[in-house]
Amino acid sequence: MIYDEEFDVAVIGGGHAGIEAALSSAKLGAKTVLITLDREKIGVMPCNPAIGGIAKGIVVREVDALGGEMGKAIDHTGIQYKTLNTRKGPAVRSPRAQADKEEYRKYMVNKVSNTENLTVIEGEATNIFLKKNRSEVEGVEIDGKIRIRVKSVVVTTGTFLEGVIHIGDKQFPAGRMGEKPANKLPEFYKKSGFPLVRFKTGTPARLDKNSIDFSGLEEAPGDEPPPKFSFWTEPAGSYWFKKGQKEQISCYITYTTPQTHKIIRENLHRTALYGGAITGVGPRYCPSIEDKIVKFENKERHTVWLEPETRDGISIYPNGLSTSLPEEIQWEMYRSIPGLENVILLKPAYAIEYDIVPPTELYPTLETKKIKGLFHAGNFNGTTGYEEAAGQGIVAGINAALRALGREMIYIRRDEAYIGIMIDDLTTKGVIEPYRLFTSRAEYRLYLRQDNPILRLYQKAYNIGMLSEKEYKIAKETEQEIKDWLDRYQQERIKENGKSYTLFEYLKRSDVTIEDLKEKDIHIPERDYVAEEIEILAKYSGYFERERKLNEKMKHLESIKIPSDIDYSKIAGLTKEVVQKLSQAKPMTLGHASRLEGITPAAITAIMVYLEKMRREKVGS
Asked: What angle, 0 to 180 degrees and rounded to 10, lies between the N-to-C axes of helices 101-113 and 16-27?
């Protein structure tokens, strides 16, 4: 086949997964092309104009620690910042920020357009070409005519594959409102033997700010000082802006009413979801308002957050009011809510159905098991959320580049990052509904905190080539500074009420802060970030040790790799069903195998014995 151009990596889709995939691939030196329908729509926020949230904010900081861009983008374009769960311990806190969605989009368009090794081509990816063996990527077709030879492809099509928008009983093809769907690429997946599953998500209407009466509503201002997402945003070396550094604007809170619920109940049969037009599975953790009314029928009201979409514009996002009601009913419903009595809808709410490939078709590297060099990331894997997409995107982009450059691919373990938990959940357990991250999914949530992503991941990122020498030096010096202060506090002592404590033991007390030491003329770290880490490490030291012991066995299993060419039928003690499951799932480690449904501890032991026997035979020969 004759190709028009040649690249190392092609990324299909310019959403949040595609951005991180393309930027990381280019950063590693792979000649990369990003294929998108409209370059000016790169980084669009089609739903909530926000980044972060519970667990999600930690993922953004992990993307940043791995050398990604999302954290820098939201720090640059955010209009309100908050730390969630401040009444709870640091393990479950997370940063969240409202974005100026137009500035965010412009930031990402500019970044992608001016990155070395990265080319943007506008058009629809209509086919993926395979080598004669049908098990390895060879090229990509654009608009049915341009052919590009590549070594790796990352597919991040979001909601575009066979996308259909629903507004009441009206349906029309679209990838997002006002954008055409991608209907050609599904044919490649069908021919290649991949299953396609129908999923659904939705978004609220957009409201005219000037038609809202805010006078009786509850104001929700940002936090001071505001939390940062990127360790590298000025001031570099922490996760906090300086107090007063960012000008913030407020959101507002209102609530649904009995009249709202009555309107919805009377028109349930006209919604796409309950009227039968939608067959795809929707997100349980971000349900439509009609879903809430049906499933929580005794709840008198539901919270609605009125969130500005830009700093200076008039568009307001009513978080909590996603719906697929007919447009004329939407007007009636929205106007039944306090503050919105005369509201004008700028755009109607809608639901959208689209195709995904089940993520159990992937290795934890996010490469497909059927085809070498083909990677999937983002909503196409059955997830929901910009942050989950970015976390997958950076891993897929890194591995696509490493595959193309002939280097060993990486995967992120569950004990290293929430990104690792998410990818392991997806590839091991699969999805029956759009997947969303929560801190409750983590066995290591005391370790995987919002304050330490850079300390957890900087070495891995540097080893791959995703951090610069300057960034590496700052991170390493920060880690060493924390260690030096810990050593000092574990030796120096303080006397109180006739008792002697090390400073580390003294800081364990719930009624003592590191600032209290300063008041006692005891030196504390000058850098706020280092001081914060010292206090957290002291306060939670006993819990950290308990968590470490509980997860020691699991960590050991993660370190035992399973050869890709292993023949499970030769392992004594495995049933035919277990052999079939393992052969299909192709787990990369014993830890991965242990989390597969139906795989017993006895089966894991049998595999472990067999691998040890293989190792001895190899050493003996």
From this structure: 30
Q: For residue 285, what pLDDT is reported?
A: 52
Q: Are residues 273 and 310 in the same domain?
A: yes
From the list 117, 63, 151, the residue with the least C-alpha distance to 454 is 63
What is residue 87's predicted lDDT score, i.e. its pLDDT? 85
Instruction: State which of 550, 579, 598 marks the end of a domain.
Output: 550
- Residue 458 burial (CB < 10 Å; 0-12/13-18/19+)? buried
The burial of 57, by beta-carbon neighbours within 10 Å (0-12 exposed, 13-18 middle, 19 or more buried), is given as: buried
CA distance 11 to 29: 15
Per-residue pLDDT reduced to its tens digit, 222-249: 999 999 999 999 999 999 999 889 899 9
How many CA atoms lie within 13 Å of 26's alpha carbon, on the beta-carbon side?
Answer: 23
Q: How many residues does the chain have?
A: 621
Same domain, 185 and 216: no
Positive or negative torsion for Cα 407, 413, 417, 418: positive
Q: What is the pTM of this model?
A: 0.91
Say if CB 489 and CB 503 are below 8 A apart: yes
Confidence band (pLDDT; 50, 70, 90) for 600? confident
CB-count exposure of residue 301 (10 Å: 0-12, 13-18, 19+): middle
Q: Are residues 244 and 383 in the same domain?
A: no
- CATH number, position 178: 3.50.50.60
Distance CA(95)–CA(51), nearest Å, equals 9
Domain enclosing residue 579, as ranges: 553-620
